[in-house]
Amino acid sequence: MDFRLAEFKASYGTFEQIPPSDRPEIAFSGRSNVGKSSLINRLFGRKALARVSSQPGKTATVNFYTLDEVCFADLPGYGYAKVSKSEKDRWSELIGGYLADDRDIALVFQLIDMRHSPTKDDLQMIEYLVENELPFVIVLTKADKLNKTERSNRLEGLKTELPYYDQLTVVPFSAVTDEGVGELRNIVEELVQNTDNQI
Questions:
Q1: Which of 70, 79, 88, 167 lies in the 20 to 30 Å Cα band around 62?
Q2: From edge to edge, which strands make up the β-sheet containing 7-12?
């Protein structure tokens, strides 16, 4: 796959606007400002395919990108305190509606800031994915911001903080050093290959 050929497809602000899926989808989920846009840009080798903002809560829509026969869905960041309750409810409905719909979700990349313990929202999302049998990979973002000792401590801590840790695929990632980019691309390519073989 030539990841640089990914294209922005569409953006939807309410669940009702989202058309049915017509191909396998890979979703990006995580709290506000966890680095979803930066990850998408590194994954596809593009500087501004997804808009990066230093202001949390900027992505308030589901943004779709296409590459070959796969669709990528960038979900709004959850857990940002400084938005109105009505806006939070809309985001919740958007994310929940997308995940609960009868869509062809092949995988969810669940992003967690490696510097901190998973938030209550992170853990709720992981439980939701497990309960609904949605396959997912944990991506630990901002890995470059930790020194060797801090990194080792966080990886050790996650073993008790994340449910089902021994059954999870966990990928440390950095948009600065490109750590994890190759591994994530391999996961996507393997998924696409398996999907093609099933058709």
A1: 167
A2: 7-12, 62-67, 70-74, 25-30, 105-113, 136-141, 170-172
